[in-house]
Amino acid sequence: MKSRLSIALAIIVLMACQPKKQEEQSSTADSTTTTPASEPMGDNHVSEQQKAEGWVSLFDGITTEGWHFFKGKENSSWEVNDGTLHCKPFIENGTNHRSDLTSNEQYENFELSFDWKISAQGNSGVMFRVSEEFTEPYASGPEYQVIDDEGYPGDLKPVQLTGANYDMHVPSAKAAKPVGEWNQSKIIVNGNHVEHWLNDTKVVEYELGSEDWNKKRAESKWKDFPGYGLTKKGYIDLQDHGNEVWYKNIFIKPL
């Protein structure tokens, strides 16, 4: 009798537990199905919040859609590799068709954010307000310098260091990470006001067309380029300097 009573109690307890278990399972499933689709995560995608703020991704991590080779030049140096825009190194005794990679869209006032890493002894740069009126991108577009500060062959002047406005403005701090590590950079252009940021540090600030800017221009290599820094709206340009460099997370927000 005691044994039968124990069995009956066990059955009652078991039956009482089953609905609760099913309820928990149903609750978990409901939670899964009602959770909003996750925002794009990982490299080269802007979040829903970033989209609401006006940010746009210029590189999808898969193709070069949205980009072209400067003035349609023949090119064999740029490729998409592991979610990056990769500029291959110069090949000795090989076929080298080099050119800069240029955005299809032109921009006037904007905030541009991008990640990059440079190879040992490497050199590159990001230019803005580039015009295809001239034979080379640097004839019009100011350049945010990207370089191996420590290992680049030869002596580098302060105006040639990472984050500089190339040959014009010296970065106020050395904020670049070692070769092979990813850096995060930002260029802000609003009217004539320009800022260069490197790993959350503002390293350069200047006014296009100001007395100081005109003086520096007259003392630099740009004195021989009549269109330098004068374009009001132009392309974003990734420089091919014959060295290996990688770019990703290229986001822009028009201002």
Outline the secondary-structure elements.
Blueprint: H1 2-34, H2 48-53, E1 56-57, E2 67-69, E3 78-81, E4 84-87, E5 101-107, E6 110-118, E7 123-130, E8 143-147, E9 183-190, E10 193-198, E11 201-207, H3 211-218, E12 234-238, E13 245-254
Antiparallel strand pairs: 1-13, 2-5, 3-4, 4-13, 5-12, 6-9, 6-13, 7-8, 7-12, 9-10, 10-11
Organism: Ohtaekwangia koreensis
GO molecular function: hydrolase activity
InterPro entries: AL/BT2_dom
Description of the structure:
- The longest helix is centred in the first third of the chain and has 33 residues.
- The protein has 2 domains: 35 residues; 207 residues, Jelly Rolls (Sandwich), CATH 2.60.120.
- With 255 residues, it is an alpha+beta fold.
- The N terminus is likely disordered.
- The strands form 2 sheets. Strands 1, 3, 4, 6, 9, 10, 11 and 13 form an 8-stranded antiparallel sheet that branches. The protein has a 5-stranded antiparallel sheet with strand order 2-5-12-7-8, with no helix packed on it.
- The N and C termini lie far apart (85 Å).
- It is built from 3 helices and 13 strands, in the order H-H-E-E-E-E-E-E-E-E-E-E-E-H-E-E.
- This is 3-keto-alpha-glucoside-1,2-lyase/3-keto-2-hydroxy-glucal hydratase domain-containing protein.
Number of domains: 2
Count helical runs: 3
The CATH topology label of the largest domain is Jelly Rolls
Q: What overall geometry do the principal axes of the alpha carbons give?
A: globular
Strand content: 25-35%
Number of strands: 13
Sheet with most strands: 8 strands, antiparallel
Backbone structural class: alpha+beta
Q: In the CATH hierarchy, what is the class of the largest domain? A: Mainly Beta
SSE order, one letter for each helix or strand: HHEEEEEEEEEEEHEE
> What would you give as the CATH superfamily of the largest domain?
Exo-inulinase, domain 1
Q: Which second-level CATH architecture of the largest domain applies?
A: Sandwich
Whole-Å distance between the termini?
85 Å
- Tell me roughly what share of residues is in helical segments: 10-25%
Radius of gyration, whole Å? 27 Å
Ranges with pLDDT <50 over ≥5 residues?
1-41
Residue-averaged pLDDT, rounded? 86
